[in-house]
Amino acid sequence: MSEEVKNTEEKVEDKLFYNWNTIPNWLCFLRIALIPVFSVLFIKDRFLIAAIIMVIAALTDLFDGKIARKFNQVSNLGKILDPIADKLSQMAIVIILLYKFWDVTYFKVLLFMFIAKELIMLAGGALLLSKGLRPSAAEMVGKVSTTVFYVFMIMIIAFGGENAAIKNVLPEWVMIAMVVISLILTFAALFSYVPGFVKQIKEKKKFLDRDE
Questions:
Q1: pLDDT of the chain, 212 residues: tens digit per residue
Q2: 3-class DSSP state for residue 41?
Q3: This prediction's pTM
Q4: 160: helix, coil or strand?
Q5: Is 170 helix (H, G, I), strand (E, B) or coil?
Q6: How far apart (Å, rounded) are the C-alpha atoms in residues 74 and 13?
């Protein structure tokens, strides 16, 4: 195989939508599609069904990565789509919880910290894309953070407070502890992306300097 043909193949495989039509990617699309369904159900006080929908969304997040790795269906689109689906799902949950606990000051502060973290992540991803780079795939701490977030927030939605599928099962201090733990993990996940972010920016700068 000539060098020119090899380079052409490498360029094709580097394209965002190369080999995009995979089960993991469709699971990500499903997770995104479930966000408005969950939100509307919650607003209409269908708390149990809303919680079940979020469990389904969390399961798609669990299985898309496993399927991608086991059946070699990892794609460039999936590496970007999966964290986007996570971010949109998490933002929807946080906004719903803000609506639910608006009168509880400390809950409000904690949840706004979640929103701040997500905005930082979005700004960092936008900066990478503006420089022709792609955000890196989630690190292990990011996967753990996402899993804990889903489990704890679904429990709060299903069992916490008056606006819950089963009212007042969780004591207030338990809900606060869940939010604090999730917040600590989510900021740990944010910091875990920093080395990769800095590395990509430096490599891009070196590449541009070499071309000049």
A1: 444 444 444 455 567 566 667 888 888 889 999 999 988 888 888 888 888 888 888 888 888 877 877 777 777 777 778 878 888 888 888 888 888 777 777 777 878 888 888 788 777 777 776 766 666 655 678 778 888 888 888 888 888 777 676 777 888 888 889 888 988 988 888 888 777 767 777 776 676 666 65
A2: helix
A3: 0.72
A4: strand
A5: strand
A6: 12
